[in-house]
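Researcher: Before we compare anything, I want clean individual predictions. No alignment, no superposition, just each chain on its own. First chain goes here; please echo the sequence and then give the structure tokens.
Model: Echoing the first chain and its structure:
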Amino acid sequence: MQSDKEGGDDGCPEECIALSDFTGSGSDQLAFTSKDKLLVHAKPSSDWWWAELHGVIGYVPASYLRPVGAAKERDEETCLEDPWQDEEYFASYGTLRLHLEMLSDKSRTEAYRQVIFTNSASLRNKVVMDLGCGTGIISLFCAQLSQPSVVYAVEASSIAEYTRQLVKQNDCEEVVTVLQGRAEETELPVQVDVLVSEWMGNCLLFEFMVESVLLARDRWLRKGGVMWPSSAALALVPCQAESYYAEKIAFWEQPYGLDFTPLQPLAQKEFFTKPKFSHLIDPSDCLSAPCDIITMDMYTLQVEDLEEMKGQFHFCVERSGVFHGFTAWFTAHFESLETEGATVELNTGPNSEPTHWKQTLFMLDRPVRVYEGDSISGSIVLHRNPIWRRHMTVTLQWNINSSKEETDNCQANIKTFTLFTLTLMNNSSIMLFFNHCGSIFFMQCGFVTYMHRQKVLTLPLESLDFFCVCFFCICVHRLEQRVSPCGGERLTKCLINGGDQLKISLTHPL
């Protein structure tokens, strides 16, 4: 498979315009400002392109650029169709995989249950809105524990059909009303006293469901009403990650007695330019005490505040070790409605019971040994993608200061990480869609199946990996082009095995 893709269709550089500022984190990355025009020479991956600015060539993040001219028009048309990627996003919540994961998260679910139980007296006869209710677990807690007058359970995905059944099955239909639709389009007959939602994502903000919560707050929460969570904070700590570093980088030093170190820069770019989600850090790997770097008051936070959120940090190293990166997590707080009632906290950090969010690891390009008494200070910026509204970048800037000669005193280190939505499908399925043709591939129960019109072909997977599956799909597609008048159209979307979204464009007939 050819990895490099030329900038333009004719092999010529493609002119692109920068959507926002970017500061490169290494000598091989270009720095640019908003509205700069760059020439893209190659597109080695969907995330990083090889571009030129003012005669200097380097890597640039693809999400920061938009093609100009005719290519720009095509790109804008594509982006504006669904900049929120709602079709794919809500489709992922239409299956049970994510709901099983969330309901199995006892820390998360019990936190909401505790909030409702400890505030049951104050919730009696109140109007509650459960935004993004999923299977309706929070709404059912409200109905059973607090006797509200009504709970409006709002859910945009197709799981809402089953939520209605669950409400009826648990004899709560007189209290809980399930409304299927996006929060921005939902109509309620009255204002609500309580707006509750489980909107938090990785790094607190990722996927930006919080915007829907804020819009619902401004539209439906009565004056003096209650938000749950009431506040939230993003925490950060410098850390060790020896096993992950060994797995992704040190591995190449001498596999099978051979020197593969020339692959280490490639491995660093492939594995460390994005954060590692679902990371479980051992508390002993924290090099200092964590600190809250971004705090959010859900009563005063505005939608426009989400475009860029900044924070500062200063850590005093409490134990000597190797500084591999930063680990982030969040806490959410639920204020009490009862007199002298205690605030309930949902903590996703390493000193609490693990949640389905776990933690998020941001790896440095080069680990640094630090010693007790050293300081690590800097800043963090969470920048929302101006086009793809569920995506964002995280830029970390840090300095290490020490009086010890053994410590590398680093000045003005900076690194940007991209966080983008992974299209989530059923764990056991792979689906590939062809424009106009309506061809579908899916993998289930150890087989990959191709369906188009009246034709169905099935192949045992056995030990086949994804690339073998793709090869099978392409072979069948080539056969289809010979017998179908719609041959030669582009393969536009591939939804892969429970998570990763891959976009493939076949510009020439196979």
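Researcher: Okay. Second chain, same rules.
Model: Second chain and its structure:
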Amino acid sequence: MITFKKMRCIALSHYGSTDVMYIKETTIPKPKNEDILIKVDAIGVNRPDIMQRKGLYPAPRNASPILGLEVAGKIVEIGKNVINWDIGDEVCALVNGGGYAEYCIAHQGQALRYPEGYDAIKSSAIPETFFTVWANLFQNEKRYEQKSVLVHGGSSGIGTTAIQLLSSFGAKVYTTARSKEKCIACLKLGAKYAVNYLEEDFVKAIQKHTKGKGIDIIFDMVGAKYFNRNINLLNKGGKLILISFLGGKNVKEFDLTPIMTQKLTITGSTLRRRTDLEKQLIRDELLLEVWPLLSSNHIKPIIHAVLPLEQASTAHNIMEKSENIGKIILTT
């Protein structure tokens, strides 16, 4: 049990640019019934952190207002109903907030032991992207042999995770990225074809590459900007999976006809507002299906940069400029 009460965290003076973030001293949170308190060593930076900083993605009710959705470190205190975890265990965890701090609360069912051979930095790059990709692409569908899947934003943390997992499960992965360097990185991770969307129309490029066959599943975080093009690229019986709307959330006009005639499915979800039980079920599947792949180095989280917590604004600037390939990590 910790004997002091204060910790450093990243706070916001108000919603806005990276300039609103500053280091603040605050009270260390206390773990409740099924919670664990983690002494944070490393923190993964994610797009939702930027959206929350701007006031576009508020924290759920009763969640910490501090930014940060994934951490890794050592358990220093546990709630009275916690089972299977002990003080001193090293874990990475998905959290509802509070990650940009020296101590963070996590629900016991959203924590995972480090994969074999992993340290805190590598482990902190796992939870948010792997939970998201698994929940949307694998929880209800694990047969990907011979299926074509388009992953937009292939060089992002989500994208690099999706490409590796889909390739491991036998999918033929297509992707989009904003530079030749990023396209090459995606190909090295297992993508079969990568389109630089700043130089080519991805629909025409992929249709040409597939000789008009199109795509079975599209995994998209762009949203409105790509909606009609995504629909036009899907094969009969295809599925569009939406996980964000970085390119807008309102589609002004679209034709419903191909959705019906092509028997298309459009679905989407967010991770943060799922129940603790839903997240625990995802955690359990990751431990069974994905942890062996990580421990054997068959797949791995891709890390672009590691920065101290004090440079959180620099991390956000890198991500907002789309300079990163993979994850950005903060250390305490």
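Researcher: What stands out in the second chain?
Model: The chain is about 30% helix and 25% strand. Additionally, The longest helix spans residues 276-289.
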